[in-house]
Amino acid sequence: MPAPIRPVAVREMPNTVYVLNGPNLNLLGTREPELYGRATLADVEKLCRATAQRFGLAVEFRQSNHEGEIVDWIQQARAEKAAGLIINPAGYTTTSIAILDALYTMEAPVIEVHITNIHARESFRHDSYVSRAARAVICGFGIEGYALAINGLAALIGAEPRKG
Fold this sequence. Notes:
Blueprint: E1 16-21, H1 33-36, H2 41-53, E2 58-63, H3 67-79, E3 84-88, H4 97-104, E4 110-114, E5 136-139, H5 144-157
Parallel strand pairs: 1-2, 1-3, 3-4, 4-5
Helix pairs in contact: 2-5, 3-4
């Protein structure tokens, strides 16, 4: 008697995108609105979830004012084999070798996002440690940069827009 036919296990593509936000981004909407606009971090999260949903992607959206916590989240994204990681390191952009080292361990694409154009601002903001580990950098598009990052990440991992 022949062995029963067993379905072949299909390996699913990871579908979670981590969106990590650094210090002071919890103050969006009230902190320097002439630079950062009036949108809140909750607005950014809503935009990220709506954009990711178009590709069937889930979002882990987080913000911390603490460097070590951000490093822990990067390591968690790696351990959970996230589809990708989008990071706005904010004030840690130009200072955190710890975040850079954690990002170097990521196998999935990393995209760096900034709400403002960091290259049109003070010179100390021009050199990003994070950019050294990022597949792409998006800056100057306001919060829409997060949607651009998710669209770009979806293209990098081959996620197709969902119908309907």
